[in-house]
Specification:
The complex is a heterodimer of chains A (291) and B (203). Chain A has 291 residues and is of the alpha+beta class. Chain A contains eight helices and nine strands. In chain B, helix 3 packs parallel to helix 4. Classes of the chains: A alpha+beta (291), B alpha/beta (203).
Chain lengths: 291, 203
């Protein structure tokens, strides 16, 4: 299957704008679940306003949140897909720039030292483009995630040591959720990476934070941690926006990787309640857009 | 827990009447301000020509569209989506913003810290919580971009908005040392040991 680069560019543009406007169904369902169980009056009223905002965004065809985030594109390439990798990345960058300039969107991306904004949502090594491969045959998937900064600033890494055990991992997660409080726009999805190298651990936390609600870690040990930590985080009473209540997080998601005999790394990456994603699947029969 | 409505600007007396848990709706004028705006005002000595005395500022960097100057878009900008960012990053600017520019209300999300709480007490100010991530709704409360200053910092310019029925906003920090965030933080910290024990970790 040959990939049409113009279609990639157009799709990269469309996905960015769509992700900013339409919240995925699993997150909307997550809101309904929290709304039904929240017992704190302030928490209930905040959740109701958040749900109202989802409707207003759809009714007025507007962005859910003003933070256009750092654009992330996750590309998954099937085995019989023919595409030049450099051209693919260039097309995505162009699509991201066009979304920003043509819509227009706020470019939230600046040089880290000069703080200069090119007003394209692009810069050195941004958008973040992750490439992976799948067993699927004639299929290329692009997932777009505009990662908001309020929750991205709630990112933490600790190189625990083996003697800290899994207790060290759990304690770190609870302490970082306490530290983040309302700054990360709860209710959140707390992404936790366990194991790997420092960089892989952090990446796992991001994968966990941006995973579909309702999905479960495919490592049974990770899944056990998810269940325990989800309960613990929601017993703290931080609540929506850090103003009190039961609904601190939709869920804690965990991703694991093997690590070194001397290491026990843990990373936390938090996703705010505006957990935006959009996805396009390219197959020989066309392009399907969804989440 | 009272409901208040203010047509901006306000006086110190207005502010000192507010208590945490009260709700506030603002009318007429609101200024948008952000990290870079305040870094330039207070670290790099830039002055703004806009008069913030007695006014409210919101921690924001909006999505806007450049358009020709007209009666409806006097600053040459049309609003697309205007929402609120995390306030904590701007903690150290609260006092100078109040002392030098006379700001009385700060609107944001996630709360401010101890130094801001002290400034609110000393100078007569409040922090009003808006719900982060609800920008589509917030945008419907903003009627016009009236003016813009320091626009080389766009989108972190100093924005002058005309607003209608902006709120309800929750008084989350008042001029009497009250902070809803402190209460929640202390409560959460007190639940830490139980949360860990539930996972088999004894302190």
């Amino acid at each position: 299957m040959k990939i049409d680069l113009d279609a990639i560019e157009e799709t990269a543009k469309l996905l960015y704008i769509r992700a900013l406007k339409v919240l995925p169904d699993d997150i909307k369902e997550g809101f309904q679940r929290l709304d039904a169980s929240e017992t704190d009056a302030t928490g209930q009223s905040i959740l109701a306003t958040m749900i109202q905002n989802i409707t207003v965004a759809e009714d007025t065809d507007n962005l859910l949140c003003q933070d256009t985030g750092i654009p992330i594109y996750n590309i998954t390439i099937g085995r019989s897909v023919e595409v030049d990798g450099i051209d693919l990345k260039t097309a995505i960058r162009k699509g991201c720039t066009r979304a920003t300039q043509e819509y227009p969107l706020r470019s939230s991306v600046v040089h880290p030292v000069t703080r200069e904004n090119e007003h394209t949502s692009c810069g050195r090594r941004v958008p973040v483009i992750n490439v992976d491969f799948s067993e699927a045959d004639e299929e290329l998937v692009i997932e777009m995630i505009p990662k908001g900064s309020g929750s991205e600033n709630g990112s933490f890494l600790k190189m625990c040591i083996p003697a800290d055990g899994v207790a060290g991992v759990k304690t770190f997660v609870i302490d970082k959720v306490l530290e983040a409080g309302g700054k990360v726009c709860p209710p959140t999805i707390v992404g936790v990476g366990v194991g790997g190298t420092a960089d892989l651990c952090t990446k796992l936390a991001k994968i966990a934070a941006t995973r579909r609600l309702g999905s479960v870690c495919d490592d049974a040990e990770g899944a056990k941690l998810e269940a325990e930590l989800s309960g613990a985080v929601n017993s703290l009473g931080i609540g929506p926006q850090g103003l009190g209540g039961d609904s601190t997080s939709f869920a804690v998601h965990v991703e694991t990787a093997a690590t070194h005999i001397t290491m026990n790394p843990v990373a936390v990456n938090i996703q705010c309640h505006s957990a935006r994603r959009a996805r396009a699947t390219f197959t020989p029969s066309g392009i399907e857009i969804g989440v | 827990m009272a409901d208040h409505e203010f047509t901006m600007p306000v006086t110190e007396d207005d502010i000192r009447k507010l208590k945490i848990g009260d709700h506030v709706v603002l009318q007429d004028t609101l200024f948008g301000i952000r990290d870079a705006t305040q870094i330039h005002m207070f670290d790099k000595g830039r002055e703004t020509r806009l008069d913030l005395d007695g006014h409210a500022v919101i921690h924001t960097a909006p999505n806007v569209k450049k358009v020709p100057v007209s009666n409806s878009c006097p600053a040459g900008y049309q609003s697309i989506c205007i929402g609120t960012t995390t306030s904590a990053r701007m903690e150290r600017f609260t006092r100078p913003l109040m002392e030098r520019n006379g700001v009385r209300m700060i609107i944001g999300k996630g709360g401010l810290g101890e130094n801001s709480a002290q400034a609110f007490q000393d100078l007569g100010g409040v922090y009003l919580a808006i719900i982060g991530g609800t920008a589509a709704l917030e945008t419907t409360w903003i009627k016009q971009i009236v003016d813009v200053d320091m626009d080389d910092l766009n989108p972190e310019s100093l924005w002058h908005f005309r607003i209608k029925d902006f709120g309800p906003l929750l008084v989350a920090m008042d001029a009497h040392g009250g902070s809803l965030y402190d209460a929640v933080r202390t409560g959460a910290q007190n639940k830490r040991a139980a949360a860990l024990a539930h996972m088999g970790i004894e302190g």
